[in-house]
Description:
Helix content: 25-40%
Number of domains: 4
Mean pLDDT: 81
Distance between the termini: 78 Å
Shape: elongated
Order of helices and strands: HHHHHHEHEEEEEEHEEEEH
Strand content: 15-25%
CATH architecture of the largest domain: Sandwich
Largest sheet: 4 strands, mixed
Low-confidence stretches: 79-86, 99-130
Radius of gyration: 35 Å
Number of strands: 11
Oligomer: single chain
Number of helices: 9
CATH superfamily of the largest domain: Urease metallochaperone UreE, N-terminal domain
Amino acid sequence: MQDPYAVLNLPRDADQARIKRTYRELAKSLHPDRNPGDAVAERRFKEISQAYRLLSDPKQRARFDRGEIDGQGNPRRRFGFGGGEGRGGMESILERMFRGQFGRSFVGSFAGSGAPGAFDEMLRSRGTAGRPGGAKVRKRGVDRRIRLEVDFLTAARGGKARLELSEGRALGIDVPAGAEHGQVLRLRRQGESGIFGGLPGDLLVELDVQPHARLGRTGHDVTLDLPVSVPEALLGASVMVPTIDGRVRISVPPHSNAGRVLRLRGRGVARPGGGRGDQLVRLLVVLPEQPDPDLESWARTHGYRTRRDDEPE
C-alpha cells in the first residue's frame, strides 16, 4: 500500500492546513472533468483522494503514523511470516501452540522448509478472529455532515443546488419545495467509504437558507413589508409586489392604515400535506422625503384622533 505522505509529496510533520492546501491543488489539476479519458490522471486522482481521506482525519493519521493501519486504512498484521524476525515470531508461536503435545522437534520441522505457507493455510482453515476462512469483518462507513448555503427562493420553490466536497467531487442536490433553514437532507451512501467491502456511510446536508432582500417567511407563509405613499393609502392604488413566483399586481384599498395586512392566498411555500401557504403583505405608509407644503397645511387644519390619551400604559 502506498504511503499517503508520498502520494501527496508531503513531509510527515505537515500540518492540516498544508495537507488540505496541497490536496486541493492536486485535485484541481487531476480532476476527471479536466482530464477526460486520461486513465493515469484518473488513477492519480483516486490515489490522492484516498491519501487525503486518511491524513485529514487526525485519528486515522495517528493510527497510520503508529503503524496500526496501512495507506488504505486497513489494519496491519502485528507479525510477519517471512524470514528474519517474522520467521522467529512464527516459530515462537508454534512452540507455544504445540510444545506440550509434540515437543520442540516437531516445531522445528514444521518451521523448516515451506512452513510459512503451511502455517498460513492452517490459519485460513481455522479462521481469523474466530471467523471461518479468515473472513474480515465488513464495517459500514461513517456518516459525514456538511452545511450547504441555499438561496431563499430555491428553498421556497424547490430546485437544484451544487455541493462541492473537500475531495474535489461535486454533487447535485435536489432541494425540496418549502425547505427550511436547518433542515437536514440525507444522501444515501455518499459518506465515508466502508471497510473491507462494507457499504459507504451517508452524507447529511444541513441547509443554510440565505435571507431575501425583501421577502421573509413565517411557517408556510411568505411575508412582505410594502411601502405605500400617503395618496396611495388614502385613495387606494394598484401596485406590483414580489412573490416567490414572480411579480404580481395587487390592489391597495382606499383608506388603508399603516400596518394593514393584505393576504395573497396560495402564494406561500408548499405544505407537507399538499397545498401552499399565503403571502402576507403589510402596508407601511411613508411620508414624502421632501417637505410638502400642501400636505402640511392640510395636516394643520385636519387633525384627528388616533389614540386615547387616557389609555393605560
